[in-house]
Every structure is written in structure tokens, then in C-alpha cells.
Amino acid sequence: MTNVNDVAAYITQHFDSPISTMKLQKLTYFSQGWALAVLGKPLFADDFEAWANGPVVYSLFDNHRGQFTVDAWKWGNASELNHSERRVIDAVLRNYGALSGAQLSEMTHRKGTPWFAARARAGVGPRQRAQEPVSKEDMKKFFGDEIGRARRSS
């Protein structure tokens, strides 16, 4: 299995200029969700935590701590991803890559999202800190439903 840093390395190499660390976290989140829904398995083992600003993988955060933007990801190896995993991430980048980190974060905060459910389980308010894991099962169901709706409407 690949790790979160391999996914981050793959994502960052698809942009011609630096992206915000928030955008990197959220594109990694969407990639994990799509992989769970489409491939039936996660891209990486790490859990996302339901932080106030949206879902965050702590180990990824720890690598970009103190940075606002990144242009390359030296902690991972994009070539570790197999063909199916790259196709899923490519689809995520086509659908969400043009959005800002703030726009992606807003999408994760909607009622009914896995992040929202994790925050509710933790019993925290909008700005309160939480490290509650975002359930991979919730992500699989949510993104499966989202992809299904998108297919039916096109």
C-alpha cells in the first residue's frame, strides 16, 4: 500500500505553481474518499482527523508545518502509486484541482459529510479543536453516493 506522502507527491507534481497546504490536505482527502468508493480500498492507512478547518492527516501536516504553500513533496514517491490509484487521483484533480483550498475546505464542512459526522461524534463546536478520526466507512459511503449522483446527472 502506498502512503499519504506518495499521494501528496503525486498531487503536487500536477501543478505548475505552488499550492496551499490546505489545498494539498483537501485534495488528499478527496483522493482517499474516491479511492474508497471506486476501488473499495484506501490509498493509505493514515486516518484524517476532524480538525476545525477540515479533515487533516497529521503526518502530512507535520511535514508541511509552518508552510503556507508547497511546490514539490520531498517526503513521498509518486511512482509508488499503481495505475488504478493514479487514475482515481487524476479524476479528483480534474474535478477539484482548479478550486482553492478554502473552496475545498468549505465542501468538506457541509452537513452530512464524513468530517461533519466526526465533529458531531466528538461533540465539538465549529472552532473547537478535535482529533476525532474521520471514518473510512463514512468516506466510502459518502463519496460513493456523490459519484453516483454525478454519474446520474451527466
Task: Please state the structural category.
Answer: mainly alpha
Poorly predicted residue ranges: none
Question: How can the largest sheet be summarized?
Answer: 2 strands, antiparallel
The global form is globular
Number of helices: 7
Mean pLDDT: 96
The proportion of residues forming helix, as a percent range, comes to 40-55%
What's the alpha carbon Rg, rounded to whole Å? 14 Å
With strands numbered from the N-terminus, the spatial order across the biggest sheet is 1-4
Distance from N terminus to C terminus (CA atoms, Å) equals: 33 Å
**DSSP, total strands:** 4
Helix-strand pattern = HEHEEHEHHHH
Domain module count: 1
What percent of residues are in strands? 5-15%
Provide structural commentary.
- The structure is a single chain.
- The chain has 154 residues and is mainly α.
- It has one domain (4-153).
- Helices cover 54% and strands 6% of the residues.
- It contains seven helices and four strands; from the N terminus they run αβαββαβαααα.
- The strands form two sheets. The chain has a two-stranded antiparallel sheet. It has a two-stranded antiparallel ribbon with strand order 2-3.
- Strand 2 and strand 3 form a beta hairpin.
- It is globular.
- It starts with a helix and ends with a helix.
